Amino acid sequence: MKKSRFPIHVFLISLMPILILYQSNLEEIPLEDIFIPLILSISIVSISWFLLKSLFRSNKISLVISFMIILLIVLSYTRLYFANNANIDINFLGSNVILMPIILCIGIIGIICIYKKNVSNDLLSIFNVMSVVVVLFLVIPIGYYFISDDSQIVSLSEFVEIPIIQSDVVEKPDVYFLVLDAYSGDIALQQDYNYDNSEFKNELKNRGFVVQKPSYSNYPNTNLSMPSIMNMVYLDSIAEELGKDSRVVTGMKEIRNENNVMKIFKENNYYIVSFFGVANAAASKELLDERLCGSLFNLSPELQRAFTYHYFPLSYTRALFNDNYQFDRLECTFDTVLNYEKQTDLPLYMHLHLLLPHPPFVYNSSGERVDHKYTEDRFDESLRNAYLEQLIFANKITLEMIDSIQNRDANSVIILMSDHGGRLGVDWNNPTELNYYRVFNNLSAFYFPGHADEISENIAAVNTFRFFFNTYLDTDYELLEDKQMWFSPERPYDQTDISEQIMK
User: Fold this and answer.
1) pLDDT confidence of 20, banded at 50, 70, 90?
2) Does residue 158 have a pLDDT over 60?
3) Cβ distance 281 to 309 under 8 Å?
4) Residues 222, 230: Cα–Cα separation, whole Å
5) Is residue 163 part of a domain?
6) Largest distance between two CA atoms of the chain
7) Model pLDDT, residue 1
8) Vertex 334, ends 273 and 257: CA angle to 5°?
9) Do 130 and 185 share a domain, yes or no?
10) For the domain that residue 378 is a member of, what is the CATH number?
């Protein structure tokens, strides 16, 4: 009997979902973030192939597995195409009732056809060759990207250099930096949600906070907003260096990880704590003393969200692999902060960047777990309600965390802010004044024990830590002019200063 060809196609095709996704997001996801997903993907497929082949004793198993992976890719991207087409409202296709029969029918028909056909070595060879070709078509552009001018980014650290000062101040306060991702300011909350947030602001004032009103972020998304805040500089020179057509943001993550703020804290003998989650790369290992609430693999949140969004069209599977993951991270973070005990006599800097009220929407206003149905970014009533419910819960849990911190040490500094506004309903291509408020109008509040009178009415986000270091460590960092730089998500370095168009 002629020996069968080894089915390398099944292992190569197992890499395709990750490679396709990564190729579409080269500028946003660091290469190292895909290694674990690739290993997991090929491991799962390999184990499945071995077990099924042992059970059914058929060489056709490899073809079945490859077919199902290709089917998953085709159906997923077809769904996304229609779901994101503003002119065709077929979002109902994302329901289990519709998708499950489609997947089952196509899958069953495909498997029957495979088993009815005689599988020769020639056919297996064709599959093997085709899989090699397809993978090469995915890998070669990735390789070209990393040797092309698009990725040849000299270290961006030179563009964010500032003096790293060691202070002579002896008594340094513990510092908690609490970032609520995509938390809307009062203007957007009133206009879009008819919601008065004054009760929360008053509760902050009752706890000694100075609430900035109005307050605006300097940039419209996390990729630029957080590197700017954590390096205490604007990123104009980087935008000029990379050019308006560049989409590369991996360099921004680099300078966020090696940021000036934590370098200054480290230079001043602070014990630095951060958390896994949306900001799991909030600092390099060299700067951190402790990173909390991790999981087995600590997968990139960006890649995980993208993967589940693309390849798990059923709502319950998305909840299982993404929403539950985010929920567990948040719950761990809340519990840790509420019960945190310092293990050192050194002053503490705790960096808390919460994916809240940012989607996925996993909480109602009371803090109960909910399974919110995805709306594919359609700004409908369901999405509005889900966002508002999660924001109200964010208010509740934030006050609880603040109370816990202040009860432990009333002299701790707490900086509470959002990296940008809620941004839901924004027309990025034809922005209106309301769109600007949706994007930039944010939350900003300072608890500076003994220095409340020194806090001005408007501290630009970029000046957050310049102001803190000047106040508590007797530094002399110049405060920069407040400005808002608009850009669309697709062109992060094609920026327009719209500061004058926002009422201050």
Assistant:
1) confident
2) yes
3) no
4) 11
5) no
6) 89
7) 38
8) 30
9) no
10) 3.40.720.10
Spatial distance between the Cα atoms of 17 and 311, rounded to a whole number of angstroms: 8
My answer on whether 105 and 180 are in the same domain is no
How far apart CA 288 and CA 257 sit, in angstroms, is 10
Identify the DSSP state of 301: H
In terms of domains, do 373 and 444 share one? yes
44 and 15 in contact (C-beta within 8 Å)?
no
CA torsion 196→445→427→248, rounded to 10°? Answer: -160
Measured CA to CA in angstroms, residue 174 lies from 161, 287, 369, 419, 454 at distances of 25, 17, 32, 22, 19
Compute the distance between CA of residue 222 and CA of residue 227 in angstroms, rounded to an integer.
Answer: 8
| Helix, coil or strand: residue 178 | strand
Angle, to 10 degrees, between the axis of helix 464-472 and the axis of helix 222-231? 20
In a domain, 319, yes or no: yes
> pLDDT for 179-210, tens place per residue?
999 999 999 999 999 999 999 999 999 999 99
Residue 287, domain extent: 175-501
Distances (CA, A) of 73 to 16, 18, 78, 251, 481: 9, 10, 8, 30, 48
Q: How many other CB atoms are found less than 10 A from the CB of residue 79? A: 21
Cα separation of 111 and 105, whole Å?
10
Mean per-residue pLDDT, 251-269: 89
pTM of the full structure: 0.80
Residues 217 and 142 in one domain: no
The whole-number pLDDT of residue 95 equals: 47
- Dist. CA 340–CA 335, nearest whole Å: 8
Reference 389, options 366, 370, 364; nearest CA is 364
The string of DSSP letters for 90-127 reads -GGGGSHHHHHHHHHHHHHHHHHHHHHS---HHHHHHH
Q: Which pLDDT band holds residue 295 (cuts at 50, 70, 90)? A: low
